[in-house]
TrEMBL record:
This is DUF1704 domain-containing protein. It comes from Salegentibacter holothuriorum. Its cofactor is Zn(2+). GO terms for molecular function: metallopeptidase activity. It comes from the Bacteria. One of its GO terms (biological process) is regulation of nitric oxide metabolic process. Transmembrane segments: none annotated. The keyword Magnesium does not apply.
Length: 615
């Protein structure tokens, strides 16, 4: 960051020169002031440092274009504002200086502006601010417009006079905020301030975007693009720290039993009566120390609303996972599993029931050609070659292991059980499930500036598995037995929540829903691990959510840019608009087929899940 110790005529010219040459600037200014401008935006958010005004300064610090006026040399700051307005209004045809300040305790936002000159922008700000009572209960706030030449706080000097604003081609707007985020002793309510700030910034951006669109020649595409494009170093430090904590343990590996084969053999030999205790691998981490490390991260210092939200969500998820590792084999593990995977909705249970009523289990054809682990490995490497054609930096490995009992992707690499066998239809589907989705989104995430997009934002699993299962459908590989298994996992999860134990669950699936003994065991043993583990419900949950997303007009391909949830699509869109994130580096091979377009159209038109199976 540039350090400017005095705002002389020379230093103001230096600021303008840097902006002209680089298009951006970040500098400390006299009296504790700061300036940050990206891409020569046609507006400037301004706040003056004040005594006994706790919290207000934080509102502007995440902005892409802001000026924090220090407590010295006010006249020099006025000269700087005029110089910026004069230069940038020439470039953009107009320039907005938007001052924020806190008023006396009341229930009103006051917008001070030339309302007749900016009717739609000012009305947009009033309209958005008036929605605040729908978001926060008990505030009872309103927004009013005051058409006055005095845009500053009563008793303050103008930051830019109306005459100078007209001369420079600028417009000045003032927003007086009620100090609802602190008490009468000037103490801030930290959680509410963060939520209030995030809401207020969105309101301001929507109004400024209307101004930018109507009054200027700026090419900003939407209000989402008005956030910072260059994140502070603290953001990347916390991103790396969270990703490192997650990499320090393999959650799914540690909650799966090490003696699953013994459990299966004993259960079948006892005619489905005896269930051995689950034995788990030793923890490679100390949960207490890891939690201390997790909560030593100063996420509260992150001013960017989108990044703050992402980090707080991820910290809570990691906290829950670490707690669950120390509770394996107890009822508390199950209760935390409900929290982690958000439980079961009646809609999801109805979808599962409909599938099992309408789709019968299919018997294996004796003449079916099977592919072993080595054959599948060759198919995977062929897909890897396709990815490398798109990006020469792509690299991944296939591991065939005797100590792995399910196929999985870990850290972007494929692990296959040594004794794995599947028919050709299943192999085609699994390639796109594991490689075309999990490997691909991991790699796309590694190409983003945020490490968490390769390991996964909080609650990313449902969308990941929804995309993976959808890819099976798109390549004509979603079989009746596969779809039934996904539905059976939901039925098992529902029964588990009602208190069913291992033998009861097994019999429910085998006797009531017609699953083969081996499929019923696989579903039951997976959902009983740890003491009750609801992760398996997310496959059908994710498919249902993805179907709803597509039927509501949502796009498909942007969901492959990394590992995130459908709830993050607005944030991902915003960060992409702000050019913080990039578009996907890799595309799966199935996206290039005409069949894919037709199949997605059927989904958008309301194709039932039970009709998605390969005939």
């Amino acid at each position: 960051m540039l350090n400017i110790s005095e705002l002389s005529e020379k230093s103001i010219k230096q600021i303008l020169t840097i902006l002209e040459e680089d298009g951006k600037l970040s500098a400390s200014l006299p009296g504790g002031g700061l300036i940050h401008i990206e891409d020569n935006l046609p507006y400037l958010i301004v706040y003056r440092k004040r005594e006994n005004d706790e919290g207000t300064e934080r509102i502007i610090l995440s902005e892409a274009s802001y000026l924090l006026i220090g407590d010295k040399f006010f006249e020099a700051y006025q000269n700087l504002i005029y110089a910026l307005a004069d230069k940038l209004s020439t470039e953009f045809k107009s320039y907005m200086v938007f001052e924020i300040y806190t008023g006396e305790p009341n229930n009103c936002f006051t917008i001070k502006a030339p309302a007749e000159k900016l009717p739609t922008s000012i009305k947009a700000l009033q309209r958005e601010l008036n929605k605040i009572n729908e978001i926060f209960s008990g505030l009872y706030l309103k927004a009013e417009i005051k058409d006055t030449p005095k845009r500053q706080k009563e008793g303050d000097q103008e930051i830019l006079s109306i005459d100078k604003a007209k001369k420079s081609g600028a417009v000045v707007v003032g927003l007086e905020i009620p100090p609802v985020f602190r008490n009468e002793n000037n103490q801030v309510y930290p959680v509410f301030l963060r939520q209030f700030k995030d809401y207020l910034i969105t309101c301001i951006h929507k109004a400024i975007y209307d101004y930018v669109r109507v009054q200027t020649t700026s090419g900003v595409g939407s209000y989402l693009a008005l956030g910072r494009k260059h994140l502070k170093e603290k953001v990347f430090e916390i991103d790396k720290a969270l990703a490192k904590i997650e990499r320090s343990y393999q959650f799914l590996w540690l909650v799966s039993p090490a003696n699953i084969q013994d459990i299966k053999n004993t259960f079948f030999e006892s005619k489905y009566e005896k269930v051995l205790d689950y034995h788990y691998r030793l923890l490679p981490i100390d949960p207490d120390l890891l939690k201390r490390e997790l909560y030593n991260l100063k996420i509260e210092d992150i001013d960017d609303p989108a990044m703050s939200h992402i980090f707080r969500e991820k910290r809570e998820e990691l906290d829950q996972q670490i707690t669950m590792l120390s509770e394996r084999g107890t009822s508390n593990f199950f209760y935390n599993s409900i929290r982690l995977y958000k439980g079961l909705s009646p809609k999801l249970s109805e979808e599962a029931g409909a599938i099992l009523r309408e789709v019968d289990e299919a018997e294996e054809d004796e003449n079916t050609e099977f592919i072993d682990a080595k054959g599948f490995s060759s198919l995977a490497r062929r897909e890897f070659d396709y990815f490398a054609e798109q990006d020469e930096n792509f690299k991944s490995k296939v591991h065939i292991r005797k100590d792995v009992n399910i196929m999985m992707v870990n850290n972007g690499e494929l692990y296959i059980p040594a004794d794995y066998k599947m028919n050709k239809t299943e192999a085609t589907a699994l390639i796109q499930h594991e490689v075309g989705t999990h490997v691909l989104t991991h790699y796309n995430g590694t190409q983003q500036p945020l490490e968490l997009l390769s390991s996964g934002l909080a609650d990313y699993d449902p969308l990941q598995e929804g995309l993976a299962v959808m890819s099976e459908y798109l390549v004509d590989g979603l079989t009746a037995n596969r779809l039934r298994t996904l539905a059976g996992r939901v039925i098992a999860g529902s029964a588990l929540m009602e208190g069913a134990e291992f033998p009861q669950l097994f019999r429910l699936l085998k006797m009531d829903y017609g699953f083969s003994a081996h499929r019923a065991f696989n579903i039951t043993s997976r959902i009983m691990q740890g003491g009750g583990f609801l992760k398996d419900i997310i496959y059908l949950k994710g498919l249902v959510q993805l179907r709803d997303h597509l039927q509501n007009g949502g796009e498909y391909e942007p969901l492959l840019a990394g590992k995130f949830g459908l709830k993050h699509t607005k944030i991902i869109e915003e960060l992409t608009e702000r050019k913080v994130l990039k578009t996907s580096a890799l595309r799966p091979s199935y996206l290039l087929t005409e069949n894919m377009t037709n199949k997605l159209s059927l989904i958008r038109e309301g194709l039932p899940l039970s009709k998605m199976i390969t005939q």
